[in-house]
Specification:
By secondary structure, the chain is mostly helical. The chain has two helices and no strands. α1 (about 10-25) runs antiparallel to α2.
Length: about 80
């Protein structure tokens, strides 16, 4: 059986991470709940970081492809015709 790739919902996970961060900025926090939220926050941060790394690599691939397509053939020795 092939390994399933987890589909990330970037905006949703980022918003959840922001909510966790805001929760920790409150003055009165519950230690047990805080520990669970901290763990979830680390999971989200790791997932988002991995996803952004993949996006960055894809952007580099696209840029390299178009840079290679844009390079003209070597015509430096060909005479200029008017």
């Amino acid at each position: 059986m092939a390994k399933e790739t987890k589909k990330i919902h970037f905006a949703h996970e980022f918003k959840e991470l922001e909510a966790i961060t805001e929760w920790f900025e409150k003055e009165d926090i519950d230690l047990e709940e805080g520990l669970k939220k901290f763990e979830r926050g680390l999971e989200l941060a790791s997932s988002l970081k991995e996803y952004l790394g993949k996006v960055e690599n894809k952007v580099k691939e696209i840029k390299a492809k178009f840079a290679a397509d844009a390079v003209p053939e070597d015509d430096t020795d060909a005479p200029f015709e008017s």
